[in-house]
UniProtKB/TrEMBL annotation:
<dbReference type="InterPro" id="IPR011033">
    <property type="entry name" value="PRC_barrel-like_sf"/>
</dbReference>
<feature type="signal peptide">
    <location>
        <begin position="1"/>
        <end position="20"/>
    </location>
</feature>
<dbReference type="InterPro" id="IPR027275">
    <property type="entry name" value="PRC-brl_dom"/>
</dbReference>
<protein>
    <recommendedName>
        <fullName>PRC-barrel domain-containing protein</fullName>
    </recommendedName>
</protein>
<keyword id="KW-0732">Signal</keyword>
<feature type="domain" description="PRC-barrel">
    <location>
        <begin position="78"/>
        <end position="119"/>
    </location>
</feature>
<dbReference type="Pfam" id="PF05239">
    <property type="entry name" value="PRC"/>
</dbReference>
Amino acid sequence: MNRLLITTAALGLVGSMAVAEQHTSDTSGGSSASMSDMQGELIRTTDITGAPIYTFNEAQDEGWDPDFTYDAVGGDWNQVGTISDVVLDQSGNLRGFVAEIGGFLDIGDKDVLISVEDANLVAAEEYAWVTRLNEEDLESLQGVGDDFWD
């Protein structure tokens, strides 16, 4: 009986290690050499910075899916600014964007942080982003200047 319990426990441990190993390899992103196999699936930050950011006419609080990707810019969306930078946390995870909003010809504009939870990719011919926040929500966000990053 003890041998059966020990064997069962050992098999359970090995099985859980195999599951953990499988899970780890799925989220690792692969090796540097295998990244070339991902051609067409990767986006460079240079393709994101300078991209327009749009908003819906109304805030999209209900039914917003932060993982959804649009394939075209909506005809009724308003361009409210551009992405000026990409924000990572200290672990290297994408956390959001710095968006330059408002103003005209760089006069009166403001840089704000937009979380990835509040923005969706528009994977059209040229990349763009749409945020669930409306223009008033964006303008009420705290501005982030160079001193914010010090």
